[in-house]
Amino acid sequence: MAALKTIHRNVPYLKQQLSALLGNTSSSVKIVCLVVLIGYFISYHEPAVRFLTVTPGYVFPPGFRIWTIFTHCFIEFHFWEVCVDVVTLGLCGKLIEPLWGKMEMLTFFTLINTSVAFFGIFFYLAIYMATFNTDVLFEVHLHGLSGYIAAVSVAVKQMMPDHVVIKTPLGKMTNRNVPLCVSLLSIILYVVGLLEGAYPTMYTTGVVIGWLYLRFYQRHSNGTRGDMADNFTFASFFPTVMQPPIEICSKFVYNLMVGLRICRKPIRKYDVGGPTAITISLPGTDTHDAERRRQIALKALSERLSQQADSAASWPSLEEDSRPKTGVQAEQVSQSTNQVETLTAAVGPPHHRTTGITTEEDYGTTRIITEEDHGTTRINTEEDHGTTRINTEEDHGTTRIITEEDHGTTRITTEEDHGTTRIITEEDIGTTRIIIEEDHGTTRISTEER
């Protein structure tokens, strides 16, 4: 009687807290909470439990209860589980849904629960093949939101990793510690017989699947996928002492998944507000070879520009021509003019004069082609077998530099026109694209690797 009076006395307070928790959440969160509450009452009907929860032996033919993969998450056997589910869903509506949006929240909910059921089925099938114990096929029921709660703890770790949850004499417990601690706690409670075996299975699976989705597959509004932050690696779930060996194993698994095209290589983007000097080392290229080729191209360009400057200095100044000349100067100018006319008659007008230099070196083959026309310089450098092509054009103060390297392929395009510079770097077979644009003092850099 005393317990009932206590509960009755606290009912208004519980209603107030529940309304505050769910008051500003979306209709989808409220509907899921209502369905979970209805599922709790349905769980008292034993035949309904068999048809709505995932039983590994009945999902595939001849039972073929495939719908249970979508309904098992709404069935809870204990009221405290319903309370935990409602609190978790309310926190999702307050914290995660405003950042992700309603559709992404529902996608995350559906994906995690169906994946937990799917992998849970194969986990118990593997146990059966190892032990031939039929109880793991027909007596185990996967139900509830344990896997989803685990995935939510991973999402909270991603958003607020250093937020302190509990202060203990042994130290502070932050959000980054919650997924591992709850997984270990569920396993310990199962070992001592206080928890069903389905709970640690679903929770651990939820942690792994939630991390995989948030790490590699979640699509963001800026067009990127996943979160490749260093503080969100799989090793970051474990204590610092255990991270080095776990990181080695996780990198091996990651490279294997990339090779199987299950995961993609990371996509990194940079956006800076002003001009800056940035050095980027692209994977798959030799830094020393790239520097050597760059020096060759710059040296050839410098020589041609200096020759062009000397040629321009040899022509008389317009200011000198406009000043009055003495008799001796006039005679010298007349003689010079006659010489120029003679030279022009022999080789044609100066603006049609083209200078071409071709150098070829096979095996590591380098070709340099230089052309000068109307004060325009073009330098083409080609190196095969790790092939680099550099095209430089200068026309009326406009410089265009095009660098292409195949087989680990890098393409760099630089254009300068009226103070505007654009640099485009692309690397295929990897695939990285770096785009740098400077326009009126604004620089944008974006890197993509597929």
UniProtKB/TrEMBL annotation:
Name of the molecule in the record: EOG090X06Q3
Pfam families, per database record: DUF1751 (PF08551)
PANTHER family: PLACENTAL PROTEIN 6, TRANSMEMBRANE PROTEIN 115
Keyword annotations from UniProtKB, A to Z: Membrane, Transmembrane, Transmembrane helix
UniProt-listed SMART domains: DUF1751
One of the GO BP terms on file: retrograde vesicle-mediated transport, Golgi to endoplasmic reticulum
GO (cellular component) term, any one: membrane
Lineage of source species: Eukaryota, Metazoa, Ecdysozoa, Arthropoda, Crustacea
Organism: Daphnia lumholtzi
